[in-house]
């Protein structure tokens, strides 16, 4: 049975934590794609002192309509203190 976007995001967050053993920082987005639902999240790769120096990784998780993980990839690393300015589309 197909799940709601909220349920898919919750499932992606739970499964990525189990797969990687990393702590979730934030969910960045969710979008329906050809392969399935792509949920993008930041995970804490490495805790540091001060915490502004934590290393965060962006992961993309692809789920089918039932919430099964099909694929996941780490796409980017950054320090928590580093910010990005989103480009206008």
Give a verbal description of the structure.
The protein has a single domain (5-79), classed as Nuclear Transport Factor 2, Chain: A (Roll), CATH 3.10.450. It is built from 1 helix and 4 strands; from the N terminus they run H-E-E-E-E. 18% of the residues lie in helices and 45% in strands. The mean pLDDT is 89. It is elongated and about 40 Å long. Strand 1 (23-32) and strand 2 form a beta hairpin. The termini are far apart. Strands 1-2-3-4 form a 4-stranded antiparallel β-sheet, with helices on one face. It has 89 residues and is of the alpha+beta class. The chain has one helix spanning 5-20, and strands spanning 23-32, 37-46, 55-63, 69-79.
Task: Write down how many β-strands occur, each being a DSSP E stretch of 2 or more residues.
Answer: 4
Order of helices and strands: HEEEE
Mean pLDDT: 89
In DSSP terms (H or I, runs of 4 or more residues), the helix count works out at: 1
Shape: elongated
Number of domains: 1
Which CATH architecture?
A: Roll
Q: Measure the end-to-end span.
A: 34 Å
Q: Provide the β-strand percentage band.
A: 35-45%
In the CATH hierarchy, the third-tier topology is known as Nuclear Transport Factor 2, Chain: A
The profile of the biggest β sheet is:
4 strands, antiparallel
Low-confidence sequence ranges: none
What is the name of the CATH class?
A: Alpha Beta
Q: Which structural class do the helices and strands define?
A: alpha+beta
The value of Rg in angstroms is 14 Å
> Biggest sheet: strands side by side, in what order?
1-2-3-4
Helix content estimate:
10-25%
